[in-house]
Specification:
The chain has about 375 residues and is of the alpha+beta class. The protein folds into 2 domains: about 130 residues, Beta-Lactamase; about 130 residues, Heat Shock Protein 90, CATH 3.30.565.10. The protein is about 50% helix and about 25% strand. The protein is built from 13 helices and 12 strands. The strands form 3 sheets. A 5-stranded antiparallel β-sheet has the order 4-3-7-6-5, sandwiched between helices. Strand 3 and strand 4 form a beta hairpin. Helix 6 crosses helix 13 and helix 10 runs parallel beside helix 11.
């Protein structure tokens, strides 16, 4: 057998033109050849003709206007730069471009095109370019959808972070307001009382009415004792010394003990030695403290149970009471102090579930413990 023009010469093979035509028609995309001198399309397979809705003769007659008409205007600059890059490339180099062509209906169609110099003249100057293009519109749509979803995810994350930031600021402001009221109405009033009594304690009163002097002196001393206690109370609220001195169990029991006049508390603790580092212990304490205060303020309960179980990779908190409950669908996390708790748990990458009905409100919290 003998090779002639890259075609094996035997009786089972059709002529060169028919074989080439069959190959290009079977190609998985749009195949066309542009003659550069007149910028004419000299060959196009059926997929190209179908995209533009024109015959090869019509496309060839358009010359350079073909690109003016069918290359999407926003991509024209990149298209021209791509052609310039191709014409200055080495023989055999393949250049790729993803851009939009306008189809027969005038709608943009994304194509990914690979081009190379097909023929050159005797001086090595390119005369023909061959291009193979594939419709990648669906791929581009999916990429755009992915980018849109990622942007929406980013915006949601920013909104969530902003929501958490607002909640933290709100919580801090409420805490400052509470401390301000404690200082003004508690410690401030006691100190003012001390000042008034001290102004009456003088040598004249001592000489004229010793009993009144001693009574005023004793009362002033009592006010100072109350002021010291109030200072300790405020200090304890700001930084729970019992937590540092005796641990999380004693700190939680201490919070509940202050409310035992109207609510009976029971406890279930497990694995508390695993509750580390310190910031996590403090976060758990503050969470339970806020939940206990919510029960005292809103639940009208007679009994409540605190469960705190710590495992190597998870902290589980459960707080339930037998109070009046509330409508979750109506109130959600608003008005009962749960929103700030939820946002704190979210910052710790945890999860909080709330269920409530008359006679039972239950809050489940799971917080992962990072091993990093």
């Amino acid at each position: 057998m003998k090779n002639e023009g890259h075609i094996i010469n035997n009786d089972n093979v059709l002529g060169d033109i028919d074989l080439i035509q069959g190959i290009v028609d079977a190609a998985p995309g749009m195949l066309y050849v542009i003659e550069l001198q007149n910028m004419q399309m000299v060959y196009a397979n059926e997929k190209v003709l179908s995209l533009f809705g024109k015959t090869l003769e019509e496309l060839s007659q358009m010359g350079v206007k073909l690109f003016d008409k069918f290359v999407f205007h926003e991509d024209r600059e990149r298209f021209d730069a791509h052609i310039s890059d191709l014409l200055s490339s080495e023989p055999g180099d393949v250049k790729e471009l993803t851009f939009r062509l306008l189809n027969a209906a005038g709608r943009p169609t994304w194509v990914r095109t690979r081009r190379t110099i097909y023929k050159t003249d005797d001086h090595g100057k390119p005369t023909h370019v061959i291009s193979l293009s594939q419709d990648v519109s669906r791929e581009m749509e999916l990429m755009e959808l992915k980018a849109q979803l990622e942007e929406e995810k980013r915006l949601l994350k920013e909104e969530k972070q902003l929501e958490i930031f607002r909640a933290i600021l709100s919580t801090q402001e409420e805490e400052r307001q509470r401390i301000s009221e404690s200082l003004h109405n508690g410690l401030g009033q006691l100190l003012y009382g001390v000042k008034l009594n001290l102004s009456t304690l003088n040598t004249q009163l001592a000489a004229a009415n010793p009993e009144s002097f001693l009574e005023t002196k004793q009362y002033t001393s009592q006010l100072l004792d109350e002021g010291i206690k109030e200072t300790r109370r405020i200090s304890h609220q700001l930084m729970p010394t019992v937590l540092n001195d005796f641990g999380i169990r004693a700190a939680i029991e201490d919070v509940c003990h202050k409310m035992e006049a109207k609510i009976m508390f029971s406890f279930d603790f497990e694995g508390l030695a695993l509750l580390k580092p310190k910031y996590l212990e403090l976060a758990v304490y503050r969470t339970v403290q806020e939940l206990v205060l919510n029960i005292g303020k809103h639940a009208k309960a007679t009994h409540a149970k605190i469960t705190l179980k710590v495992k190597p990779h998870l902290i589980y908190i459960n707080v339930c009471d037998n109070g009046v409950g509330f409508d979750i669908n109506k109130n959600g996390y608003k008005g009962i102090g749960l929103r700030s708790i939820r946002d704190k748990i979210s910052l710790l990458k945890g999860f909080m579930k709330v269920s409530s009905r008359a006679g039972r409100t239950e809050i489940d919290i799971n917080i992962p413990i990072s091993t990093k």
